[in-house]
């Protein structure tokens, strides 16, 4: 009954041609499906195309394709609230699909949305042809029932346009999933290229290769931070540039000057004349003959993979005292006691650092490796990083870089910021725990009250 005439909106709003055309399409589709006012129900694919078996799967598809459909997350929340007022999971175009909730109840199911905001998102759903208004004479939403309790006429929002667009929505959702997967692969590939090239440049610097070191400036230019919503085209350009640079870097690094290979083989610690004699009791080796070299298996790890606080500063001092190769040319500096930090606190305060650890962060070694990668991406120089490791310790320097990554939108110069923290730590004017605790509280506040965090 209402499908015939309840088309024009209540109040001063005019009737759009698109809305009238959509109403005609709904009428024709219902007639083909055997609904009210039209002939025999269709069969085969034509009949199945007018039925949605699970309305919540369709809402999930709308959520995945919201960008292509021109919807915001709050508009999708309002659509989900409207869908909750339809009692059945199955949506059949041959049956009435009009829901008629009150503004108060609809606001409650929309997580307490304000009335003005609710009206704006309802208008967006109508404009994007997700629902159709069926306004009554006085603009109220209600249903007229007969003596048997069956609905004879209903005024509210018709969900038929959503069912008619179900095929299109599912296709857009699949495309959105494929786009998201491609973006994840691109970001992972970029991270791996940056990590590998950073290791190559470090090895080249240690070997004194000026040819490979000359490409460090280009590497730093391509190591800028990627935004959360960086488009796929920009990611592809960054990946292609990194591929080109990596090919040149590997060619320079693998190129050997005349006699370099022989000199390298003669000066290795194992064959040097000053090397100690190898004991006949060799360590246990794996017996995989497919590899060119034997792998030494050891059960003891240098750093325990636990979440207990580890004082890397004490380890650094003991290693420096026992090593004969300590740099004696370094200027004297204060030796403050660096308070150990807890790995759990670092990860809870700085969750973004997990994105740069492909295998997860199970201990301090994983955190240090991720921080080394992040600092090169942020443009922090090797000298600033090494100085921070000497002053703060390996754990403290890694935690400081993780904190800088968490607040990168507020820090203009990450390298200068790290040098400032290191200088304050040298005079005993800086502690990591208050900074990490503040970041943890800030993150908790953002999760509980989005947009109100300090």
TrEMBL record:
Residues 262-276 have a biased composition (Polar residues). Residues 310-319 have a biased composition (Basic and acidic residues). Residues 51-204 form the Plasmid replication protein C N-terminal domain. The keyword Phosphoprotein does not apply. It comes from the Bacteria. It holds the Pfam family RP-C_C. Residues 343-440 form the Plasmid replication protein C C-terminal domain. Keywords: Plasmid. Residues 256-337 are annotated as: Disordered. The keyword ATP-binding does not apply. This is Replication initiation protein RepC. It comes from Nitratireductor thuwali.
